[in-house]
Amino acid sequence: MFTKNYLAAVRCAAAVMLCLSMTGAGAQITDWQKPEPYRGQEAGEPGELKEDDFALPDVAQATDWVEFHVGSETRNRYFVARASISVGKDEVTRFISRVLTAGGAETVSVEGIRCATAERRLYAHRRAGAGWVSPRSVQWSPVYTGNRFNAYHYALFDGLICAGDRPQKPSQAIELMAASFKSRVGTPLTGYR
After folding, report:
1. What are the backbone dihedrals phi and psi of residue 94, each rounded to the nearest 5 degrees, phi first?
2. How many CB atoms lie within 10 A of CB 138?
3. Among 113, 145, 108, residue whose Cα is nearest residue 130
4. pTM of structure
5. CA 64 centroid distance within chain
6. Secondary structure of the chain in the HEC alphabet?
7. Alpha-carbon gap, residue 79 to 68, rounded angstroms
8. How far apart are alpha carbons 189 and 99 in whole angstroms?
9. How far apart are CA 172 and CA 179, in angstroms?
10. pLDDT of the chain along its 193 residues, tens only?
């Protein structure tokens, strides 16, 4: 009897060891762990795309604004400077954005959206008397963060600046932004229906 229990325990232990050794054998590095040039990391292999060199635009370009509709959930107003919209060889659309809150606070930033990866990047903020100031983090992040109340990056990505995974021409993007209010009834302060 002792021998039967002993043999059963040894077989059970061997089976457990076999299962444990098989689970570790399949471990591998996946694509999401590799460096991504659009997330602020250096490309590791030759031939991978890198972001274009980009000089911050003149602060004077932050004047002629086109307003665009984000959603009825927010009372903020959103703008892009017409003269600042550009598409680089790396297919990143860069622009100066302006957010005006219902309380009157204003944020002006230089930003970029890469349609192919649905990512955005902040290049600089405008500070009164100091011009453009670089942010702490300059990495690429997803355009959709789950925050529907301040989701203007997603609104730009979803049909205003991007046409699928390709960037719109700047003139086309301006027309689409200006037309984003036409089918809505209401105002930014009262909401839309």
Report:
1. -115, 145
2. 11
3. 108
4. 0.68
5. 24
6. CHHHHHHHHHHHHHHHHHHHHHHHHCCCCCHHHCCCHHHCCCCCCCCCCCCCCCCCCCHHHCCCEEEECCCCCCCCEEEEEHHHCEECCCCEEEEEEEEECCCCCEEEEEEEEECCCCEEEEEEEEECCCEEECCCCCCCEECCCCCHHHCHHHHHHHHHCEECCEECCHHHHHHHHHHCCCCCCEECCCEEC
7. 6
8. 14
9. 11
10. 556 677 677 677 777 676 666 555 444 444 444 455 544 545 444 444 577 788 888 888 888 999 998 877 788 899 999 999 999 999 999 999 999 998 989 999 999 999 999 999 999 999 887 889 999 887 888 998 777 666 899 999 988 999 989 999 999 999 999 998 765 555 556 655 4
Q: What is the pLDDT of residues 85-123, one digit of tens each?
A: 999 999 999 999 999 998 989 999 999 999 999 999 999
Tokens read off for 29: 């590095």
